Amino acid sequence: MQPIDNKIDRLVYTLNETCQLLGVGRDYLYQQLSEDRIGCIFVGSSRRFTQQQIKAWVAYKESESQRLMKQGPTHESK
C-alpha cells in the first residue's frame, strides 16, 4: 500500500487508509463501526471515511480517555 500523501487534502479515505491514519487494525475499526462509534459512507459497496468522521472518532476517544483517567484505576477483586 502506498503511503498517504499528507500534502493533498483528501475528502474521503478507504478502510485501509483510515486504519493507517489512526494506527489501528482492520478488526478494531470494524468493531468500532459495529458499535456505532465511527461513521462511514458507502461509495457503491465500498466503505469510505470522511475527514469529519475520522476527527469525530478521535475526539470521542480523547473524551473517553479523559473520563477514564479521572475515574482512576479500577480494582477488580478475584
Compute the number of strand runs: 3
Strand order of the largest sheet: 1-3-2
Poorly predicted runs: none
> Based on helices, strands and strand pairing, what is the structural class?
alpha+beta
Multimer state: single chain
Please write the string of helix (H) and strand (E) elements: EHHEEH
Most strands sheet: 3 strands, antiparallel
Beta-strand content bin = 5-15%
Mass-distribution shape:
elongated
**Average pLDDT across residues?**
89
The number of helices is 3
Radius of gyration: 15 Å
Question: Percent helix among the residues?
Answer: 40-55%
Distance between the termini: 45 Å
Q: What does the model show?
A:
The N and C termini lie far apart (45 Å). A hairpin with a 2-residue loop joins strand 2 and strand 3. Strands 1-3-2 form a 3-stranded antiparallel sheet. The model has no long low-confidence stretch (mean pLDDT 89). The radius of gyration is 15 Å and the shape is elongated. By secondary structure, the chain is an alpha+beta fold.
